[in-house]
């Protein structure tokens, strides 16, 4: 069964997920996975749906009709069989989480993602945000990153590079 990756964005209001789910279900689609959030007054997310071959075009057309409520872009995803066997499914791979907390400043995401990229690691999930610093004033930047690490990766080198970065940026980085 083909899979579609939907990117969605719209002004945040009640009923957006329901409207999207109604269209998916009406076309015999199966909502498989999603990450959805309200950010800066916008509702945004990514949804993976499985849909029968014969219904792909009709579903894609129906999703365009949500314009005005949600802007939906469809992208072909790997079907379940093709997705199996990749790094994400490597039984010997492990997950590492990288948690960061420090004074907010431009470039933190670039610096952390550059270290991960140099180690040829792909980010599985990343959540970031800012909050008021309770005692010092200003903003704190927080990040929670999950990466999938193949068994042959140099995790000691990764940890050393992240510790060096934490010192340079004056932030706390924990790797678990």
pLDDT average, as an integer?
93
How many discrete domains?
2
Count of helix runs: 5
- Approximately what portion of the residues adopt beta-strand conformation? 35-45%
Gap from first CA to last CA: 36 Å
CATH class of the largest domain: Alpha Beta
CATH third-level topology of the largest domain: Alpha-Beta Plaits
Summarize the biggest pleated sheet: 4 strands, antiparallel
The CATH superfamily of the largest domain is ACT domain
- Write the CATH architecture name of the largest domain: 2-Layer Sandwich
Q: How large is the radius of gyration?
A: 20 Å
- Could you state the order of secondary-structure elements as H and E? EHEEHEHEHEEHE
Helix content: 25-40%
Strand order of the largest sheet: 2-3-1-4
Shape, per Cα inertia axes: flat
| Strand segment count | 8
Query: Structural class of the secondary elements?
Result: alpha+beta
Task: List unreliable stretches of 5+ residues.
Answer: none
């Amino acid at each position: 069964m083909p899979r579609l990756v939907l990117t969605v964005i719209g002004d945040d209001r009640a009923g957006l997920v329901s409207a999207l789910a109604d269209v998916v279900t009406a076309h015999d689609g199966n909502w498989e996975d999603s990450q959805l959030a309200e950010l800066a007054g916008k509702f945004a997310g990514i949804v993976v749906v499985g849909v029968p071959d014969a219904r792909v075009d009709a579903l894609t057309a129906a999703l365009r009709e949500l314009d005005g409520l949600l802007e939906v872009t469809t992208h072909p995803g790997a079907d379940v069989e093709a997705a199996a066997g990749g790094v994400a499914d490597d039984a010997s791979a492990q997950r590492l989480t990288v948690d960061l907390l420090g004074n907010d400043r431009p470039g933190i995401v670039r610096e952390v993602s550059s270290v991960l990229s140099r180690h040829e690691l792909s980010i599985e999930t990343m959540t970031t945000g800012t909050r008021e610093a309770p005692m010092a004033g200003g903003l704190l930047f927080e990040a929670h990153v999950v990466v999938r690490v193949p068994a042959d990766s140099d995790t000691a080198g990764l940890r050393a590079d992240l510790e060096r970065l934490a010192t340079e940026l004056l932030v706390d980085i924990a790797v678990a």
